[in-house]
Amino acid sequence: MGQIKLNQVTKSFGDVQVIPPLDLTIEDGEFTVFVGPSGCGKSTLLRLIAGLEDITSGHIEIDGADATYVPPAKRGLAMVFQSYALYPHMSVRKNIAFPMKMAGIDEAEQNRRIEGAAKALNLTDYLDRKPGQLSGGQRQRVAIGRSIVREPAAFLFDEPLSNLDAALRVGMRLEISELHERLKTTMIYVTHDQVEAMTMADKIVVLRAGFIEQVGSPLELYHKPRNEFVAGFIGSPKMNLIKGAEAEKHDAATIGIRPEHTAVSKTEGMWKGVVGVAEHLGSDTFIHVHDTGLADMVTVRITGDIQAKHGDTIYLTPQLDQLHKFDAQGLRVD
Amino acid sequence: MARAVTQQRKIINTTAAWGIGLLIFFPILWTILTSFKTEATAIADPPVFLAFDWTLENYSAVMERSNYARFLWNSIIIAGGSTILGIIVAVPAAWSMAFVPSKRTKDILLWMLSTKMLPAVGVLYPIYLICIKLGVLDSRGALVIILMLMNLPIIVWMLYTYFKEIPGEILEAARMDGATLKEEILYILTPMAIPGIASTLLLNFILAWNEAFWTLNLTAAKAAPLTAFIASYSSPEGLFFAKLSAASTMAIAPILILGWFSQKQLVSGLTFGAVK
Amino acid sequence: MATKHSRSAARLMMAPAVILLLGWMLVPLIMTLMFSFKKYLPLRGGDLGWVGFENYVRFVSSSAFWPSVGATLTIVGGVLLITIFFGVLLAILLNQPMWGQGVVRILVIAPFFVMPTVSALVWKNMFMDPVNGLFAHLWRFFGAEPISWLSQASLPSIVMIVSWQWLPFATLILLTAIQSLDGEQLEAAEMDGAPPLKRFGYITLPHLSRAITIVLLIQTIFLLAIFAEIFVTTGGAFGTRTLTYLIFQRVLESQNVGLGSAGGVYAIILANIVAIFLMRIVGKNLDA
After folding, report:
1. Of A228, C2, C181, C283, whose CB is crowded by the most CB atoms within 10 A?
2. Whole-model pTM?
């Protein structure tokens, strides 16, 4: 079980309120990702749930019980830290055993769980090494192993992949997703990387300056961003946001069109522009178009390769059914 | 400055540095050599360097006459006791300042430092009087406490500096793993900070070993450590150079060796982290 | 990382150290302050009542006061000058490439670890003794009349002994500071055409200025308080009675506690003036 409910939670550091009153429910078994730019309060929110920081007001419930004043150790949550936070003076085995030792679990059971976790995480050969002798990916797995063996009500991940190189990050992302599929335990995952959020989450919570901008499944966020911020934050390359006369034609203050929802032609189309840079990835081509009179630059994404180079004239045609409209406050209008 | 230097430059540097190094070290070397001479050779003119009959008679004479073992034992108890006690008091304080800093942490650290700068002579009589009133003048216990208090600011400061280098996330992980505060300090922080604690121990042991204001003024016969033992050679026994040298060598040899181990920590310890 | 729980635990764990130091500072300080306003002669009648500022006036107007200030300033100033000047030179030398750098470092640092009573006695007898001391041999070798160092040249002798003890400290700190100097800066200056002396003056010395200030302040605090070196060598005779030693004599030797305490208060004020500057530097470093 691992349902976590935040009720009117706030957090202030001195006079600065970093989390304004906030309500959120994370259902049992859900993989929830907190995503947002740095300084948006996502890590603070995670630490409030963990109990590493006091909340200033409001309540936190875990499985229906008030956990607001329960110390971190008693909340039944496990956390994987950004720096992994392995105990450098203990072997991998002792690291993984530590939470069980603290909980007073008997040694036979400890060993059973360590073996199980080590097998699941490919750590069997490394159990007697010290963390300093492991690679980044292995350390990450030890940190996960240490949190699994406690059989927590929920896992908390604080930007766990940000210290890994790009290739490892993709691998670990899959491993964590698979772990979730297998354990079906609640996971809360903090990241600033919207790709991680989109690929892993059941539910994404987009935060900005402590405010929840939107909560929803990855595809909900992609197809129906509630406001301009979410529209710009989710999706890569970023959605093109166009203001002014062109937007007014659609009865909106701002219109947004994703790069992948725009067709390109050399001869005719709705908007005319000049190619600035064309990035050829093989599978896709990103074209950054200037002088459209719409915005500084419009980005389009074409599947496959297309002949385009700097200075070419190009015509763009947005798919009108994929157009997002926002009012003067930046809120979505349908 | 990875740069090739001419062989000639290097030879000049080496000669100059070794020359000056030996000159500075000479009084110690001379003391050690003299301790193995007879009293007659010790004052020979011209002085003899190495070509003398080496003897251990001075050492046995010193040991017999002045109950050297008792002074040594007092030094060990006073320096060791004050340092260990200081660390026991300082570890929790340094933990608090390093991992739960508040607005006042800096002020407290600086205030602690300021107590270190209080001139001892300014409070000599009150301390003397308190010792008499409590009946602890010339007792090892009193000196253990006084030297502990004297070095406590340095101990707190050094531990604080070392603890600061330990990432807070590791302690938070322990807390999430269910460790209580005591377990967190005992199983995680202390083992991780062992090198830092060891160098703090070493440096403060040396400082306490060499402390010569309180040890001279508050001891007589019973609790006198090696500083007082040597001071008793002031005169006229001091004119027996070989015995003086033997006694001196015995008083400084252990600390010289410990000191060489601690030279790395010496700088940041004694400048309160202002020079690293 | 802080919850109410950990903050209250932190206060609790800080308490022993804070309370102990507070007691260590306040109790004797208040007693000294109190004694300084009393006529207090433990061996001749004990507490003879309040006398206002009389002790303060008498302490500074006694014939021993100004000489002791002079001796203190000579010793502190002399030692600072010698240790910092030679400390800078030695630090630069030790930073050059050479063979056996580690061993030389160890040789240079050694005096710092020698017990003050030992270094004072060794210098006093084995080097400065007018008959059998090494210096006397040396003087006779050159046909000169040996000097009775500690009586004829008492202050320079003490300055020399104390400088020998503190030169390692200055050297070690300055060496650490020099090693943190970015070598590329010096190379850039060389490319810009600065000769070695100019490079030292414009780059190395400014880089060292902070370390020099720290050495200056810390040594001043310790040097103001030197005691064993004088206790063992001259016992305060021959013009080597420093302020610290004068207070010690007033308090313990002549048992005039009131007078000595007034002197103690002066010493505390003096040390605090130096300490304020030191704390500023250390405090700034804490913010960084």
Report:
1. A228
2. 0.82
Q: Are A333 and A292 contacting, i.e. CB atoms less than 8 angstroms apart?
A: no
Q: How far is Cα C237 from Cα C25, in angstroms, rounded to an integer?
A: 32
- Residue type, position C39, single letter: K
B192 contacts A98? CB cut-off 8 A? no
Angle at A256 between CA A254 and CA A258, to 5 degrees: 170
B183 alpha-carbon distance from chain centroid: 31
CATH topology of domain B67-232: MetI-like fold (1.10.3720)
Phi-psi region of A84 (alpha: psi -120 to 50; beta: other; left: phi over 0): left
Helix, strand, coil % in chain C, rounded to nearest 5: 75, 5, 20
Residues facing C109 on adjacent strands = none
Within 8 A of A103 by CB-CB distance, chain B residues are 178
**What's the pLDDT at A221?**
93
pLDDT of residue A34: 94
Q: How far apart are CA A131 and CA A88, in angstroms?
A: 6
What is the chain B residue with the closest CA to C182? B1
Q: Which domain holds residue A154?
A: 4-230
Strand order in the sheet with A271-280: A262-265, A313-318, A271-280, A284-290, A298-303
DSSP code at position C123: I
Mean pLDDT for each 10-residue chunk of chain C (288 residues)?
A: 76 91 91 87 79 85 86 90 93 87 87 89 84 82 81 88 92 86 78 81 83 83 84 82 87 84 88 81 70
- Contact between B187 and B171 under an 8 Å Cβ cutoff? The reply is no
- Interface pTM (ipTM) of the complex? 0.83
In a domain, A16, yes or no: yes
The domains of chain B are located at: 7-57, 67-232
Determine the Cα–Cα distance for residues B126 and A59; give it in Å rounded to an integer: 55
Q: For residue B107, give the amino acid letter.
A: D
Residues paired with A187 in a beta bridge: A31, A155
Phi and psi at residue A270, in whole multiples of 5°?
A: -75, -45
Separation of alpha carbons B58 and B230, rounded Å: 15
| Residue ranges of domains in chain C | 52-287
Shortest CA distance to C72 belongs to which of C223, C268, C235, C233?
Answer: C223
- Strands, sheet with A254-257, edge to edge from the N-terminal-most edge strand: A240-243, A254-257, A324-326, A332-333
Query: Both A177 and A265 in a single domain?
Result: no
Mean pLDDT of B89-117: 87
Q: How far off is chain C from A321, nearest CA to CA, in Å?
A: 48
User: Nearest Cβ partner of C116 from B31, B210, B258?
Assistant: B210
Q: Does A71 touch chain C (CB under 8 A)?
A: yes
- C5 CA to chain A: closest CA distance, Å? 8
- Predicted pLDDT of residue C1: 46
Distances (CA, A) of A330 to A194, A209, A260, B173, B196: 20, 16, 22, 40, 55
pLDDT at A71 over 60: yes
CATH code, domain carrying A220? 3.40.50.300
User: Are the beta carbons of B50 and B34 closer than 8 angstroms?
Assistant: no
Residue in C97, C112, C228 closest to B5 by CB? C97
Distance CA A290, CA B67 (A): 95
Query: Is B196 in contact with B159 (CB distance < 8 Å)?
Result: yes
What beta strand segments (E) does chain A contain?
4-13, 16-26, 31-35, 57-62, 65-66, 77-80, 154-158, 186-191, 203-208, 211-216, 240-243, 254-257, 262-265, 271-280, 284-290, 298-303, 313-318, 324-326, 332-333
Cis-peptide into C206, omega within 30 deg: no
pLDDT tens readout for residues A137-169? 899 899 999 998 988 999 999 998 888 888 888
At the top level of CATH, the class of C52-287 is mainly alpha
Using an 8 Å Cβ cutoff, are A192 and A36 in contact?
Answer: yes
Cis geometry, peptide bond prior to residue B236 (ω within 30 degrees of 0): yes
